[in-house]
Automatic annotation (TrEMBL):
Ranges of compositional bias, category Polar residues: 523-533
Transmembrane intervals: none
GO terms for MF: phosphatidylinositol-4,5-bisphosphate phospholipase C activity
Pfam family, any one: PI-PLC-X
EC main group: hydrolase
Residues of the PI-PLC Y-box domain: 390-503
Annotated protein name in UniProt: Phosphoinositide phospholipase C
Alphabetical UniProt keywords: Hydrolase, Lipid degradation, Lipid metabolism, Transducer
Region (Disordered) residue spans: 201-236, 333-352, 360-383, 506-536, 571-617, 630-649
EC number(s) per entry: 3.1.4.11
InterPro entries: C2_domain_sf, PI-PLC_fam, PLC-like_Pdiesterase_TIM-brl, PLipase_C_PInositol-sp_X_dom, PLipase_C_Pinositol-sp_Y
Record carries keyword ATP-binding: no
Length: 712
């Protein structure tokens, strides 16, 4: 796990599929001698020999939309350098010379990652996966790292569309209003909260954090005070921090200002702001004022006319289409039901009061004051923990505590359930069918469990497989989770349309697409099985020839490229197709001895491969073959046909291939020098270049020349 510490150009950093990161710097300005030698061999032995009498043609003609200039067979696409194997039938070639071939190879058309599809934006927002961040304000670990507005700037520029803000009182008010957390004790004041929380941490908190905390207090006192609340000039404004830890705070106003400035610089897709409110009611009022001031017309504070539904009945508002929310900010906040109107019941008659008086104990004589107060009083109403003015901002994203999928709130179109990874796995174990059905129609957010104090990430793929739209990750570190997130959202603007079978029936969200309501969200078994067939794939096979690399970045443990000993590790992350109810029932009754991934009787599929080490930043891997045959019963090689086994089936849109270039260190740990992660449905067949990021997720000039053959 690599941290992202230090100043970076966020627009050139991976992680959230930022358009600039995905679509720029994908052309190669020069080829190394090693790469050039391989390209010459490809041209001489696989292109010119296959078609010695090819016609001359210009690069402009080859780039035209006319497929006659670029198609060599039914599997060939514009992005492929050339796809053929010796011994097959001979093809004509679109390349007039070796120089033209090199020009094509150097272009972005030869990126191993194909362009994103043009998605339909007229589906309800529950039909999309959303690039999401957890505790966005933190720059490091979850215990004592610094909070900063730079975290919001960084993730928004990188393509994140769902961010999180934990809001606390700015000072120590003598306010008895509760917070939005059901479990937290009544501890008021920021410093008191920190002391209380750190007392629970005890010896588990590293000693160095105490010095950091003392230093941060001294720095905070020197900082200028935030702008005063216009209603009470002497009142401090809310602040953002990770509660009950030694993390340093940042003003809520500064966070909102940063969000307003950077939310739509790289994408016009909507941003969801997930609020975790621990502030008193008065501070919540300030929150509303600040958000309205900073976000103005971007803020969705009422039902949009285009979405339809009854604007006067919050429980009847359907989810809007994604196309209706361009450049909009949605607030996800706990829902508070409106206060009931004052009772119109007439006061009790005198004879009723007399009966009540006679029933009172004799030791408690009636008071001679106002007679209406003599009536028995009910228990005092519990104060709302979320201000109604703030709660109303959750127009399309109303957060509810999850109890089950059969509760009334589980059928409200705009509800959102947020569960930790541990809780969600428990829900999946208890009722996987209901979980999957819910997420076809309604929104859900998953976030890392509390034990991930180092800010490590969960694996998002299993949660996407369950249809969870918002899988929140810690963007300040680099690990497998962030690599997969980059692959999912590369060039997509932060929103990706779910595959068929994962969407609401008929494309209508909010529980309106099925033939029933309730916790199932109108789940239709017939429809689910039909949609499942749409995304099922034959057992996948994948073969990757690794030819060479150039301009490999150095890992932290290697200071001289002459000492670099790189090897390529490749891992295939497969996602099964969305299961039908029958398959779900079978899964719940499967015996422990049955492996989750059958491989046609040939054992579990081998989904990790690596090359032998080479040398230098311009490494030659000598066409080493990495073979993945998840179907079993046949070898995958260059140019295979579709798999024909009966083993693992996969949904390509939720499956990934991950490359890591690792330094073979004889005396220490093998460090990652570079990486790339591609969604399987966008991987191009044939010869192509895999563009690499360094250990901090920054774009590099490094590339791998590979040859890809896919079956399935």
């Amino acid at each position: 796990m690599a941290p992202t510490a230090g100043p970076v150009n966020a627009e050139l950093q991976a992680g959230g599929g930022n358009l600039a990161s995905s679509l720029t710097a994908k052309e190669i300005t020069a080829f190394s001698p090693t790469i050039l030698r391989h390209l010459k061999q490809i041209y001489e032995h696989e292109i010119r020999e296959a078609a010695p009498g090819f016609s001359q043609g210009s690069c402009d003609e080859r780039s035209a939309d006319s497929a006659a200039h670029v198609t060599v067979d039914n599997n060939y696409t514009r992005g492929d350098v050339y796809e053929t194997s010796l011994g097959q039938r001979r093809y004509s070639t679109p390349f007039g010379s070796f120089d033209e071939f090199l020009a094509h190879a150097a272009s972005s058309s030869c990126n191993a990652l194909g362009p994103p599809k043009t998605y339909d934006l007229d589906h309800p927002i529950s039909n999309y996966f959303i690039s999401s961040s957890h505790n966005t304000y933190l720059t490091g670990n979850q215990l004592y790292s610094r909070s900063s507005t730079d975290g919001y700037k960084n993730v928004l520029l990188r393509g994140c569309r769902c961010i999180e803000i934990d809001v606390w009182d700015g000072e120590s008010p003598d306010d008895t209003s509760g917070s939005s957390s059901d479990e937290e004790p009544e501890v008021y004041g920021l410093r008191n909260r920190l002391k209380h929380g750190l007392g629970h941490l005890g010896h588990h908190l590293p000693a160095a954090s105490k010095h950091r905390e003392q230093a941060s207090h001294a720095q905070q006192e020197q900082q200028s005070a935030p702008k005063p609340w216009r209603s009470q000039a002497a009142r401090a404004e809310p602040r953002v921090l990770h509660g009950y830890t030694a993390t340093r705070e940042v003003p809520f106003r500064a966070v909102c200002e940063t969000i307003g400035k950077y939310a739509f610089q790289t994408s016009d897709m909507p941003v969801i702001v997930s609020l975790e409110v621990h502030a008193c009611l008065e501070q919540q009022e300030i929150m509303v004022e600040i958000m309205e001031e900073m976000w103005r017309d971007h803020l969705v504070d009422h039902v949009l006319p285009a979405s339809g539904g009854d604007a006067h009945d919050a429980n009847d508002v359907p989810l809007p289409k994604l196309s209706d929310l361009r450049n909009k900010i949605l607030i996800k906040v706990k829902y508070t039901p409106p206060k009931p109107p004052p009772s119109k019941k007439p006061p009790p008659a005198p004879e009723q009061l007399a009966k009540i008086d006679s029933a009172l104990p004799s030791a408690a004589p009636p008071d001679s004051s106002d007679s209406d107060s003599e009536a028995p009083s009910s228990a005092p109403a519990q104060k709302s923990k979320i201000l109604s003015t703030l709660s109303r901002l959750g127009v399309y994203t109303r957060s509810y505590h999850f109890r089950s999928f059969t509760t009334p709130e589980a059928a409200i179109p705009t509800h959102v359930f947020a569960l930790s990874e541990k809780s969600l796995l428990g829900v999946h174990a208890a009722d996987p069918t209901a979980l999957f059905a819910h997420n076809r129609d309604f929104l859900m957010r998953a976030y890392p469990k509390g034990l991930r104090v180092s800010s490590s990430n969960l694996d998002p793929a299993p949660f996407w497989q369950q249809g969870v739209q918002m899988v929140a990750l810690n963007w300040q570190v680099w690990d497998r989770g962030m690599m997969l997130n980059e692959a999912m959202f590369a060039g997509e603007g932060g929103w990706v349309l779910k595959p068929e079978g994962y969407r609401s029936s008929g494309g209508h969200g909010g529980g309106g697409g099925g033939d029933g309501g309730g916790g199932s969200g109108g789940f239709s078994a017939t429809t689910a099985m039909q949609q499942t067939d749409d995304v099922s794939r034959a057992p996948p096979s994948l073969a990757i020839e690794v030819l060479a690399a150039q301009n490999l970045p150095l890992p932290p443990s290697c200071k001289d490229e002459r000492h670099l000993r790189p090897y390529v590790k490749c891992e295939l992350h497969l996602s099964p197709p969305p299961p039908s109810p029958a398959a779900r029932a079978h899964a719940t009754t499967r015996t422990p001895s049955t492996p989750p991934h059958s491989n046609g009787g040939h054992g579990p599929p081998k989904l990790k491969q690596q090359t032998r080490p080479s040398r230098g930043a311009d490494a030659d891997f000598g066409r080493q073959l990495l073979r993945f045959d998840a179907a079993g019963g046949g070898a995958a090689g260059p140019g295979p046909g579709p798999g024909s086994g009966s083993g693992t089936r996969a949904t390509e849109a939720l499956s990934f291939v991950r490359f890591k270039v690792v330094h073979d260190d004889s005396f220490g740990r093998d460090d990652v020098a570079a990486w790339a992660c591609l969604r399987l449905d966008r991987v191009r067949r044939g010869y192509a270049f895999v563009h690499l990021y360094d250990a901090r997720g920054m774009q590099t000039a490094g590339v791998l020349l590979v040859r890809v053959a896919k079956g399935g």
